[in-house]
Amino acid sequence: MTTSRWKVILTLFEEGDTNITKLSKKCSMRYDVLRSEIDFLEKKGIVEVISGESRAKVIRLNYSNPKVIILKDLIEEVKDIFE
Question: SUPFAM superfamilies, alphabetically (predicted)?
Answer without folding.
Answer: Winged helix' DNA-binding domain
